[in-house]
Amino acid sequence: MSPTRTALLFVATALAEIVGCYLPYLVLRERRAAWLLAPAAASLALFAWLLTLHPTAAGRVYAAYGGVYIAVALLWLWRVDGVRPTATDLAGAALCVAGAALIVLGARR
Predict the structure, then answer these.
(1) Residue 2 belongs to what H/E stretch?
(2) What is the 8-class DSSP label of residue 86?
(3) Residues near 66 by Cβ (< 8 Å), separated by ≥ 6?
């Protein structure tokens, strides 16, 4: 799998997990409709399935995914929650993505 496809798969995986956790948050904290739990469960199932599409050992996938998840979560914070990430948020995310890239690209050798 190309590095671009791998990165897009990680981003899609992160979005599925975030949506799957955000919808129950809306139900429990914001008192939104309980029917939102059904798409939340579907999104978490999608998240689990997407993790299986990565062509390397599960532990390596989880480790690299963690770095991408952090960056996507900060993007969610900005675009959905309306909270602008700080410079330290962005620096931390950059370090995490660099670490994820090192894990993924190093495994290709």
Answers:
(1) none
(2) P
(3) 96, 100
- Find the helix or strand (DSSP H, E) in which 93 lies: helix 87-107
Whole-number pLDDT of residue 58: 84
DSSP 19-77: HHHHHHHHHHHS---GGGHHHHHHHHHHHHHHHHTSSS-HHHHHHHHHHHHHHHHHHHH
Q: What is the mean pLDDT of residues 30-34?
A: 96
pLDDT over 70 percentage in the chain? 97
| DSSP 8-state symbol, 85 | P
Q: Would the pLDDT of 89 be above 70?
A: yes
- Domain ranges for the chain: 3-107
Q: Does the structure show a pLDDT above 90 at 81?
A: yes
What confidence tier does 109 reach under pLDDT thresholds 50, 70, 90?
A: low
**What is the Cα–Cα distance from 88 to 96, expressed in whole angstroms?**
12
